[in-house]
Amino acid sequence: MTNEVLLYAGSAVSIAWGIAHLAPTKSVVKGFGDISADNRRIITMEWLAEGFTLIFIGLLVALITALYDHSNAISLLVYRVSGGMLVAMAALTALTGARTKIIPIKICPFILVSVVVLFILGSVL
Residues 112, 92: contact at Cβ < 8 Å? Predict the structure, then answer.
């Protein structure tokens, strides 16, 4: 039971953080000022891609948790691969966006690593 709560909590945080990426996309792009249309499209694409990826990871873990036993080999693989992707995203953000003065981007790696910890704890308890 505790493991499921941890897995669902991690999923909820991932989904919520993904939605938090999608919501301000237009204002984020505007924040770059007068840039070319191609650059606006690329920034929009990347910002939305990260949001959709976070939502997908959260939904995938929640669905696997709901449909299968948390100790099932496939479930464990999904939790670990999802965690690995989140670690990669956290590292990328730490090396790039988190070096800016924007507070939500600075805290992003910590949020993503927190989700990974919830996934790990949920899969081993």
Answer: no
Distances from the Cα of 84 to the Cα of 19, 24, 41, 112, angstroms? 20, 26, 28, 10
Residue that is written with structure tokens 């939305």 in the block: 48
Whether the Cβ atoms of residue 3 and residue 123 lie closer than 8 Å to each other: yes
* Pair 100, 61: CB distance under 8 Å: no
pLDDT grade for 9, boundaries at 50, 70 and 90: very high
Residue with tokens 């507070």: 103
Which residues of 48-103 form beta strands (DSSP E)? none
Cα separation, 1 vs 23, whole angstroms: 33
Q: Where are the domains of the chain?
A: 2-124
Q: What is the pTM of this model?
A: 0.93
Around Cβ 85, how many Cβ atoms within 10 Å?
16
The band of 120, judged by pLDDT with boundaries at 50, 70 and 90, is very high
Q: What letter represents residue 13's amino acid?
A: V
